[in-house]
Amino acid sequence: MIFLRRATNVAVLTLLVLPITAVLTAPPAAAESRKQAAARARSMLAQLKVARPLSIRGYSREKFRPHWADRKGRCSTRELVLARDGRRVRRNAACHPVKGVWFSPYDGKKLKSERYVDVDHVVPLAYAWRSGAKRWSPAKRRAFANDIRRPELLTVSHSANIAKGAKGPQSWRPPRRAHWCRYATSWITVKRHYRLFVTRKEKTALLNMLRTC
Fold first, then answer.
1. Total-model pTM
2. How many CA atoms within 13 Å lie on the side-chain side of 52?
């Protein structure tokens, strides 16, 4: 009888332990996914040409216009990104967000008004210009500025967007270290797709951020 009770207790404890073990083993799986993303990013980065930045001469945002092109009906690219990245977003008849909640991955801020958010070009337009976009056609520059298929457009806080400006990863990194991995992989993905080159310092900074994956 005592043996049966002990066996029952062991069976019960085993059932209780299994779910806990499953939970504890989940983070390594997620970490492996980040490692795989980092490995792909390193491979793409290795394929990018390393060169000195081109002159900023001739650059203006006008060269990428309209950098918030109309997409569906009355919605511009910016409005579509705000709707995509926010929660409980409500838009008026002109498609402009009038209510919603946005999380800024750069600095971790939770923003409850569209007035405090910006749609950031992960690879800034001026930086892209010096990385090869200077030689593009107007149509290609417009497509780059409105690309919602690649991780080029992201809703962030206005303050973080201002602080970043047109800087590259060698000069600016998201204050929130937890976003460094995603920031670096996004930057590399965009540059690889558009065949933009990188500088030596830029490449080093990206590799350093990928170590956080």
1. 0.83
2. 2
